[in-house]
Specification:
The structure holds two protein chains of two kinds. By secondary structure, chain A is mainly alpha-helical. Chain A is about 70% helix and about 5% strand. In chain A, helix 20 packs antiparallel against helix 21, helix 22 packs antiparallel against helix 23 and helix 24 runs antiparallel to helix 25. Classes of the chains: A mainly alpha, B alpha+beta. At the A-B interface, helix 5 of A face helix 2 and helix 3 of B.
Chain lengths: ~550, ~220
């Protein structure tokens, strides 16, 4: 059935005026009435916020500013496209691999220049038809409803065999999201029996990683990259795998290889920076985060954390003027963000302390604490640690200790953070004092958790709930404790039936941990337990 | 530089030279077409051939890099539909376009859509240039291979192209049809499935005309 293009609301994006006019004319020749034409990704976003378009046709290369792929990813993350809207990327051959990213962030189709009006029309019509046929899939995937997504895939595979491979890929990805790795592996391997498609090989690797068969996963990815050295998603996955196995040097090397293929990918520079920081390779970290800040200046959403991290790296390398410049840029770029102002002032205090400007250090610390307290903002771990250090260095020990206590109590299993805390105390020559505080906080969290679990095992679920929920209140970011609180509540409901107030608290705890620790093993375990409980409750009803 | 790399480099240079010639031809044609609109179809065909050459330069560079092929599951029917529309658009009233397909054309086949599309468009443009009244597009299935066939009704392939002669491109002697044929050979050969590899077939038809088939495993 032909698609009625003249009723489609269309946006075309190209920074080249001649090409923009030609594309607009070509769209009109396809039957589209009055397409809207803009010359940059930012203008496109402004339009997309005001109107729901059916079709977006964007060139990948949009000059200075975000490129077409960044535009697409922003649109998907900000839900600026309806489930049935199609996004077609126009790209030169060389940019192809930057376009073909993860499935959920990929365009609906692409056109490699040069192309004819007829090719444009056919690709548009087919993309619209496919989108319409698979609308429910896109909607469920956007909502993260992976269980429903699986059922929808199975239904549609029978009804729409022409989309069998798209659906198989979606199904495999959903199974991985649900941590059902064996089944995911089976789905991808079934595809591979037909042909060795790169995304299916990547899917097998991800499933193997989930099954903790790391060596096999590495082997699959290494072979994939040997066959398809421009398949960028495979580099990302292999780097993550190396990082998981604490092979940080290998992880960095893989990302460097990916940057040779695609040098403008901000997230890879950042990943290298994070890896470099983990092993205290400050030189590499400075180069990486410098690239992140530079390349993000023209992006949609520069991240203040990147500026702050860069400033800290400069500080650690005793490059104090550069550190202050980076902090000033962060404050200028994010003027209304209280957390950024507080964080930047905390680091500024440290910089001034190290540069032996005590008056400036005290002023900046006052600004930081005032900003943090009055706005009630939750600071990132590293910033909290910076603030604590600044407090100690300005003789405000009680405040420093309080910050550290909160930090360690909420992250008692995070060995990297604990080590960072210990390092901070070593830097300020308070090693023993720090060790005492850390041990006390960790022991407290562990004993509360263990006591809660023991009560639950001994049948005292009410007691377990009381203890763990109180702990979840005082240590709200402690994923393990919060999830044990949820676990206790679910166990109670499994015996006594679904209760609205308890169920609401379970959902609230899951939501809290999902936001900050979505890959925490306890979160995954409790999520599955919750799913099974709801299924059983529904069956019984 | 290896012989293969040298041959690839020569092919790329030949494509670039031909592209330059086509730009010159197009410039003059369009100047003339500004006065005589009946030259517009010819001008359009020249732009297509120019696009082919420039596109091939980029794609040959991709093929020269290891792992340059990007196969995925694509609909051969949709690809043939694009070719048919392209053919009808360029043929005008003089040349009839016919499409033939066996009853069971698979919903999917595995190939690099851009490379195969370029190879087939090359062959199609060549057929349209040489045909007198008819061009036929067809699917063939044989022994687990899917074939995309393009036939015209006039002209003939040189014997050495039909006989799969060694690459003249190594000596930089390719132009026109032979560039397209060599490109199609490379594209076909880069598609492999287990022990099977793609290939092209060229044949001269009795009574005039040529038949080009790109077979994919």
């Amino acid at each position: 059935m032909p698609m009625d293009l003249n009723r489609s609301r269309t946006l075309v994006v190209d920074d080249h005026p001649g090409m923009l006019a030609s594309l607009s004319r070509a769209l009109e020749a396809c039957g589209i009435r009055s397409p809207h034409a803009v010359r940059s990704a930012r203008e496109a976003v402004a339009r997309l916020r005001n109107m729901r378009y059916d079709i977006v046709l964007a060139d990948f290369d949009l000059g200075a500013g975000p490129d077409g792929q960044q535009l697409l990813e922003y649109c998907r993350n900000e839900h600026l496209l309806t489930p049935t809207a199609v996004f077609i990327m126009v790209t030169a051959e060389r940019a192809y691999d930057r376009v073909m990213s993860a499935a959920e962030l990929a365009p609906d189709d692409y056109l490699v220049k040069p192309f004819t009006e007829e090719a444009l029309r056919l690709r548009l019509v087919r993309a619209l038809e496919r989108k319409k046929a698979l609308a429910v899939i896109h909607e469920l995937r956007a909502l993260g409803r992976h269980e429903d997504l699986l059922q929808a895939c199975d239904r549609l595979i029978g009804a729409e065999p022409r989309f069998a491979f798209d659906l198989a890929r979606t199904k495999g990805d959903a199974l991985i999201a649900l941590a059902r790795y064996d089944e995911a592996q089976a789905v991808f391997e079934q595809v591979l029996q037909t042909r060795a498609i790169p995304w299916a090989r990547l899917g097998v690797a991800r499933a193997l990683e989930g099954l903790r068969r790391y060596a096999e996963a590495r082997s699959v990815l290494t072979e994939l990259l040997a066959d398809a050295p421009e398949y960028l998603a495979a580099y990302d996955e292999l780097s993550r795998l190396h990082g998981r196995c604490d092979n940080d040097d290998d992880a960095k090397a893989v990302l460097q290889m990916a940057l040779e293929v695609s040098p403008n990918a901000v997230h890879r520079h950042k990943a290298i920076g994070e890896l470099a920081l983990r092993v205290h390779d400050l030189e590499t970290a400075e180069a990486a985060y410098g690239a992140v800040v530079r390349k993000s200046r023209h992006g949609f959403a520069p991240n203040p954390d990147d500026h702050l991290t860069l400033s800290r790296i400069y500080m650690d390398r005793s490059k104090y003027p550069q550190a202050l410049d980076a902090l000033a840029e962060a404050k200028r770029t994010f003027p209304g963000a209280a957390a950024v102002q507080a964080s930047a002032s905390a680091i500024e205090s440290l910089v001034h302390s190290k540069a032996e400007s005590p008056r400036d250090a005290r002023r900046a610390l006052d600004e930081a604490l005032a900003a943090a307290h009055s706005a009630g903002v939750a600071l990132a771990q590293d910033i909290t640690l910076d603030l604590a250090q600044a407090c100690y260095m300005n003789k405000r020990e009680a405040e420093g200790a309080s910050l550290v206590q909160r930090l360690v109590s909420n992250n008692h299993e995070d060995s990297r953070l604990i080590e960072d805390v210990r390092r901070m105390y070593r830097e300020i020559d308070r090693e023993e004092q720090g060790e005492t505080l850390v041990e006390r906080c960790v022991d407290n969290a562990v004993s509360i958790n263990n006591e809660g679990v023991a009560r639950a095992k001994n049948g005292d679920l009410e007691g377990a709930i009381e203890l763990l929920e109180e702990a979840a209140r005082t240590m709200p970011d402690n994923a393990h404790i919060v999830m044990n609180a949820a676990h206790a509540l679910i166990s109670h409901m499994q015996i006594h039936g679904l209760q609205a107030d308890k169920h609401e608290r379970v959902e609230s705890y899951l939501q809290r941990v999902r936001l900050r620790h979505p890959e925490h093993p306890k979160y995954l375990q409790v999520t599955e337990l919750h799913r099974q409980f709801l299924q059983a409750a529904q069956a019984a009803a | 530089m290896t012989a293969e790399a040298s041959g690839m480099r020569a092919l790329i240079e030949s494509n670039a030279r031909e592209a330059a010639d086509l730009v010159g031809e197009l410039t003059l044609l369009l100047d003339h077409a500004a006065r005589e609109t009946h030259d517009l179809p010819a001008a359009r065909m020249v732009t297509r051939r120019l696009s082919d050459r420039l596109g091939q330069v980029v794609m040959l560079e991709r093929l020269a890099r290891s792992g340059g092929i990007r196969p995925d599951a694509w609909s051969p029917i949709e690809l043939m539909e694009e070719l048919e529309h392209e053919a009808v658009s360029l043929a005008g009233a003089q040349i009839g376009i016919d499409v033939r397909a066996p009853d069971l054309v698979p919903q999917f086949w595995f190939f690099d859509r851009e490379l195969v599309g370029m190879a087939l468009r090359n062959a199609l443009h060549s057929a349209l240039v040489h045909a007198s009244s008819a061009v036929t597009l067809e699917f063939r299935m044989s022994d687990g291979y899917l074939g995309f066939g393009i036939q015209d009704d006039a002209g003939s392939f040189p014997d050495e192209l039909v006989l799969n002669a060694p690459l003249r491109a190594e000596r930089g002697e390719c132009n026109g049809n032979s560039l397209g044929v060599h490109f199609a050979r490379l594209v076909a050969a880069s598609h492999a499935n287990r022990e099977r590899r793609g290939r092209i077939e060229l044949a001269n038809r009795h009574g005039g005309g040529t038949c080009f088939t790109l077979w994919l495993p």
